[in-house]
Amino acid sequence: MNKFSIAGCGFILAISQLALFPASIWAGGERQATDIYFLDAQKTLSRKLARKPNTAPARNIILFIGDGMGISTVTAARILDGQLKDMAGEENILSWETFPYTALSKTYNTNRQIPDSAGTASAFLSGTKTKSNVISVNQNAVQGDCQSTHGNHLESFLELSEKAGVNTGIITNARLTHATPAASYAHSPSRYWETMSDIPPAEQKYGCIDIARQFVNFSAGNGIEIAFGGGRRNFLPNFVTDGEGEKGKRKDGRNLIEEWQNRHQNGQYIWNETGFDQLDLKKDGPILGLFNASHMQFETDRHLDKGGEPSLADMTKKAIEKLEGKSEGYFLYIEGARIDQAHHAGNAYRALHDSVALAKAVQVAKEMTNGQDTLIIVTADHSHGFVMTGDVTRGNPILGKVVENDKRGIAKSHPAQAKDGSPYTTLGYYNGGGAIEGLPRSDLTDVDTEAQNYLQQALVPTGYERHGGEDVAIYADGPGGYLFHGVVEQNYIFHVMNHALRLDEKLKSVK
Ligand SMILES: [Zn+2]
Questions:
Q1: Domain ranges in the chain?
Q2: Distance from the CA of 103 to the center of ligand 1, in angstroms?
Q3: Is the four-CA dihedral 174, 176, 179, 185 of positive or negative sign?
Q4: Residue pLDDT tens, the chain, 511 long
Q5: How far is the centre of ligand 1, averaged over its atoms, from the C-alpha of 341 (Å)?
Q6: From the CA of 68, how far away is ligand 1's center (Å)?
Q7: How many angstroms does the Cα of residue 234 sit away from the middle of ligand 1?
Q8: How much distance in Å is there from the Cα of 179 to the middle of ligand 1?
Q9: Kind and range of the H or E element at 379?
Q10: Ligand 1 mean position to 243 CA, how many Å?
């Protein structure tokens, strides 16, 4: 027996529970029937046989996006999370892995085989696919061409929710003006037009305004109830220094934080952890939290932040508290943004720790909401060129070097060596900063591959690591969740949300 096989089941069942399985389910021999994996699978089967699809309307929807969280990332994060809890790791279950419904999502953009986050967010928020790098405008628009967006705006699920009287919230640990969050409230031919000075003067004259200003000007329904993220510099003029000593980026002299405060006299603006802790969630009026000049910290660096900043789970908790306090339902859109950015850097350590942080946020959402009236969806916008490979023994540290089994199936005492004589890691990237141009890969014998700043080796030297093009998973629980199965286009997510919330009917009744 392998040393992990007892810890090997999510649910450790006593042999006495065998009696719970009627002979009609299992009439075979006892060898399987006393095995914990067998018992666990029987229990899973019973759960699935008893499940009835919840076809009732959803009161609330929470959409979680793990930016760049492809399936290899989910598997590796599951193992890391388990190993952090002293398990072998493989048997661990992330919070969304208990959700009953899954589908595979095809992520390509209309003009790209392997997508970017702007095109993908526009797809699942608007119900139709579009080009890469554009923010909630349709595929008739041309990237970077302001005029081409006129008449080509796509209404996002968040805008439509507001119009229908549904409350809304946005949480990201990237800049609030970054592509994924921006697609919920802004329309732009370029994801890079975050402040006015990012828009070429020749384009400005056609009336396009920057993404930060579009956030402050947002006027659908009664406005966004709660928004947390980074990106403060895009809201402040370049002559203003913020509470953490960083300069604003705006060259048009506008202080959008003051503009937001003037617009919302009863609003609460906060920028650090103290302000976050002191938020009055009972008070009417919107909440805006901008916790960093640019992106918020990676989860493992969060404790180093000057002003202090909340975790994704902390922000999720406050947002649900605020939104649950209202009589209408809500749509809450939450992005674990930095999984993607760590992958781009070729750093699996931070990508996986940020995935675990997202799993904690999903756990909070599960615990705080009623599974009967709240649809929770967890998905990724796209994958990464991130691989998990090797004949690795059970329970091997996920960030470590490959250790194989011997001929008897027991872990060897030394890492495996490649043909070049050097050990190699289980995790790696196809391209990115971990590749060395024109030289053989470095010898890992004396390298700590589990260190926070270690970059996994890569083959193709592309500077930063690129997105992956294979399908990503959609996990769902709650009313309407049963509509996720099979292989679907990414923009289908909007259609399930629309059906679950009966948004169409709500919109018709307010018109
Ligand atoms: Zn990316």
A1: 15-50, 60-385+466-510
A2: 22
A3: positive
A4: 344 443 444 444 334 444 455 545 667 777 888 889 999 999 999 999 999 999 999 999 999 999 999 999 999 999 999 999 999 999 999 999 999 999 999 999 999 999 999 999 999 999 999 999 999 999 999 999 999 999 999 999 999 999 999 999 999 999 999 999 999 999 999 999 999 999 999 999 999 999 999 999 999 999 999 999 999 999 999 999 999 999 999 999 999 999 999 999 999 999 999 999 999 999 999 999 999 999 999 999 999 999 999 999 999 999 999 999 888 899 999 999 999 999 999 999 999 999 999 999 999 999 999 999 999 999 999 999 999 999 999 999 999 999 999 999 999 999 999 999 999 999 999 999 999 988 889 999 999 999 999 999 999 999 999 999 999 999 999 999 999 999 999 999 999 999 999 999 999 998 7
A5: 6
A6: 6
A7: 20
A8: 10
A9: strand 374-379
A10: 29
Burial of 453 (0-12, 13-18, 19+ CB in 10 A): exposed
At residue 38, φ and ψ (nearest 5 deg) are -65, -45
Residues designated catalytic: 117
The DSSP 8-state label assigned to residue 250 in this structure reads: B
| Token couple for 483 | 């509509």
CATH of the domain spanning 60-385+466-510: 3.40.720.10
For the whole model, what pTM was predicted? 0.94
User: What is the rounded CA–CA span in Å between residue 511 and residue 499?
Assistant: 18
Helical H runs in 91-245? 117-126, 157-163, 179-185, 201-204, 211-217
